[in-house]
Automatic annotation (TrEMBL):
Protein name as it appears in the record: Phosphocarrier protein HPr
UniProt xrefs under SUPFAM superfamilies: HPr-like
Location of this chain's protein in the cell: Cytoplasm
Main subcellular localisation: cytoplasm
Keywords: Cytoplasm, Phosphotransferase system
Keyword Cytoplasm in annotation: yes
A GO CC term attached to the entry: cytoplasm
Annotated function: General (non sugar-specific) component of the phosphoenolpyruvate-dependent sugar phosphotransferase system (sugar PTS). This major carbohydrate active-transport system catalyzes the phosphorylation of incoming sugar substrates concomitantly with their translocation across the cell membrane. The phosphoryl group from phosphoenolpyruvate (PEP) is transferred to the phosphoryl carrier protein HPr by enzyme I. Phospho-HPr then transfers it to the PTS EIIA domain.
Organism of provenance: Trueperella pecoris
Domain of life from the UniProt record: Bacteria
Domain named HPr: residues: 1-87
Taxonomic placement: Bacteria, Bacillati, Actinomycetota, Actinomycetes, Actinomycetales
Coiled-coil parts of chain: none
Length: 87
């Protein structure tokens, strides 16, 4: 299993546009990726599940996958989360 933590940079957290951009990027990776926050897990490719986590600006989330090529995918997604997607 591969894991990577990331700090949410978007001012509104993982809500609306940032969640949509992130979920689309996770879906485009073509592998199963989980995002976890505060003891809850979500399918990273599901905008509704990502938003339901309630992760806000400055919160730390964990990305994980068991799929081949997962380490590079998690790195790309973590970089995305660490970018202000509202700007």
């Amino acid at each position: 299993m591969f894991t990577r933590t990331a700090k949410i940079a978007s001012r509104v957290g993982l809500h609306a546009r940032p969640a949509a951009v992130f979920a689309k990027a996770a879906e485009d990776e073509g592998i199963e990726i989980t995002i976890s926050f505060d003891g809850d897990d979500a399918d990273a490719a599901s905008i509704l599940e990502v938003m339901s986590l309630g992760a806000m600006h400055g919160d730390e989330v964990t990305l994980s996958t068991e799929d081949e090529g997962g380490e590079a995918a998690l790195e790309r997604l973590a970089t995305l989360l660490e970018t202000d997607l509202e700007g």
